[in-house]
Model the fold of this input.
Amino acid sequence: MGITAIRSLVVCTAILLLPIVLLCTRLEYFLDVVGGQDSDASSMAGGWIRWYVLGVPSVVVFRVLQRFLACQGVVKPCMYGSAIGGLVVHPLLLMWLVPRLGFDGSAMAIAGTQLVQVVLAIGITVGMERAFVQGTWPRWEWGLMKEVLDQIELWNYVSLSLGGDTFIE
Done:
C-alpha cells in the first residue's frame, strides 16, 4: 500500500508539472490575448497564481496521505490537520498577510495554510500510536525508489486510472 501511495505521488507530480509551468509562465498571455481579459486583471491573476501554486505540492502530499490512511480506516491526522489549518491558521494568515500584501497575500495565506495542514497531518501520523498498519509503509531506501519507478509497474498504475484493462498490454 505504501508503494502505491508513493507511486501516486510520482504520477500526480508528473501530471501536474506541465499545467503548473503553463500557469506560472503563460497565464497572463492566455487571459489577456486568448481570453480577451483586461491586461491589468490578467497581470494580477498571473501574480496571484504564482503564489498560489506554492501550495500545490502540499495539497498533493496531503491527498496521498489522506487516501493512504483512509484505506486503513484512519481519519484523525488529516481531520486535525485540516481543522487546525482551516479554523485557526488560515484566518490568522489572512488577517496578517492581506493588509500587508494585498491581493497576493490571500494566495500566500492559502499556500501557507496548505503547508501547515500537511505538516500537521504528517506530524500527527508519525506521533500517533498505531496511526497505520506498520507493514504498509516501506522503509526509505534506494531500492524502494527503483521499485516505485519501475516502468512496467508505473505504467500499470497509470493505466488503471486511464481505463483499466483497456490500456494494459
Remarks:
- The radius of gyration is 19 Å.
- Residues 2-19+54-138 form one domain.
